[in-house]
Amino acid sequence: MTRSASLWRSCAKSCIRYCVLACLLTITAVPPALASNFEIAPVVLELSSARTAGVVKIVNNDNHNVSLQVRAYEWNQVDSKDELQPTQNLIISPPVFNLAPGASQVIRVVSRQAAGASEIAFRLLIDEIPSSSEGALISFKFRISMPVFIAANTAPKLQLDYQLHAGKPARLMVQNSGNRRARLLDLALTLPNGKKINAPAGGNPYTLAGLTRQYLIETETPLAAGSKVKLTANSDAGPIDTELTVAP
């Protein structure tokens, strides 16, 4: 097994705990706040032409009942921004359910989407449904966004290319010409003066298959075309350490 495959398998089997405080809906009274504390496994669901169904397990570690809704969306990236569109290509069962304290629920996810030459990306949005019985209590809602991927029906290939363009802000272009997503963590640039700048990734470290993602890099002074900048990051295929020449 390659290092990349091992890392992805580890991610698929891992379990993450979400302790989320979300938007404050009412401000009339200030009783103890209600939070939500969950375990979800896996954190990324991997499907393929040979494995068209998978399961997601949610455990309620809190001391109160919750109602959850799960919906499926096609996931695309346009102008470096995520776009989600509702889809019927993933069947979710059950789509709505209640969880008592300490209880768990297994969600079955079945793909109706045929695998293609490139990986296909979806997201599951798991939302808490506010309870009408909460009355004047401060009510918190949360949302979990979980990736689901259908592997390409060809051999996996990850090919990343980088371009850094001068200007203020500078523009770092990450082009994924492979057939599977790339996940870049701790993406940073070391400037000619030795200063290190972390690229703003928001909450999403992915560049989907066949797409290009832009990062805007704020610097004190514009980068000069022709200067050298060091790029570092961590990926599922291993660390990335390369030198870029700033383009006009």
From TrEMBL:
Keywords, in A-Z order: Membrane, Signal, Transmembrane
Gene3D superfamilies: Immunoglobulins (2.60.40.10)
Signal peptide residue numbers: 1-35
GO biological process, one term: cell wall organization
GO CC term (a single one): outer membrane-bounded periplasmic space
Keyword presence, Amino-acid biosynthesis: no
Keyword match Transmembrane: yes
Record-annotated Pili assembly chaperone N-terminal domain positions: 39-150
Protein name: PilP assembly chaperone transmembrane protein
Native source organism of the sequence: Herbaspirillum seropedicae (strain SmR1)
Gene behind this protein: papD
